[in-house]
Predict the structure.
Amino acid sequence: MASSSSSYLQSLFGLDGKTALMTGGTRGIGANIALSLAKAGADVILIQRSEENTATRDDIIALGRSSRIVVADLASKESIKAVVPKVTGEWGLKVDIFINCGGIQRRHPAELFPDEDWEEVLQVNLSTCFSLARDVGKHMLDTRKEGDARGKIINIASLVSFQGGLTVPAYAAAKHGILGLTKAFSNDWSGKGINVNAIAPGYISTEMNTALIADPTRSRQILERIPSKRWGTPDDFSGAVLFLAGAGSDYVCGECLTVDGGWMAR
Ligand SMILES: NC(=O)c1ccc[n+]([C@@H]2O[C@H](COP(=O)([O-])OP(=O)(O)OC[C@H]3O[C@@H](n4cnc5c(N)ncnc54)[C@H](OP(=O)(O)O)[C@@H]3O)[C@@H](O)[C@H]2O)c1
């Protein structure tokens, strides 16, 4: 009985033999996503700005999966161009799952928001996500054979994909864009064996929110509005990511799954 239930779960959420490529795996939500993929059986290639931080790679290897770091700066168009050719050409890997998780936040009153911060946030949180998903999608289309499992692309959105937030106009614009990109790629590719979906985290205690957590008034106001009565943690993303990365979501296309303790339902 136990073995039949575990093979059933394996058929829906297991990732044995799959290779995932992702950004943002060094820490926060992305580090948990990387380890969740590895625990479900995937090898994980980490796109990082340097090879200095090997913590996630080492943890994946300790789980018995393979992992490598491909160096790229998400703020640099030139650097991003080289990623997919390196992983799929030079290294000869076939990518089955791709996750756009890396991101930055810049906060200023809207009337003082500097152009440079606007441009950097739009590059890292939207343009780079477009370029990488496009390149991985093309690779998936080019390498697909009849009967292959579906390719899975997951973009990390935000509550400010739906709302405007406060003091974060660039981040809100980029994350609204992520939802559009998710639907647009999904429409082109869902009939060709690739699912493109998004996950929208609520308020999660990571370094990205250091400023909010340190502001007692904002921090209290946020907590009071969350129906689950707690901030989220990176661990809250394991189930959502395995659902969207595994075969259990093969007919889920262009969707955004909020993981927010009920914030959006309120
Ligand atoms: N935390 C939240 O409440 C929340 C809410 C909604 C959405 N999100 C989204 O969830 C995702 C992960 O957020 P998080 O809270 O886990 O953030 P985090 O702890 O601040 O981690 C950000 C990640 O992005 C990487 N990154 C940033 N700029 C980069 C660059 N130029 N080149 C290479 N890598 C870069 C970081 O790498 P380094 O370690 O090298 O800096 C790190 O891995 C982001 O897309 C974020 O927008 C978060």
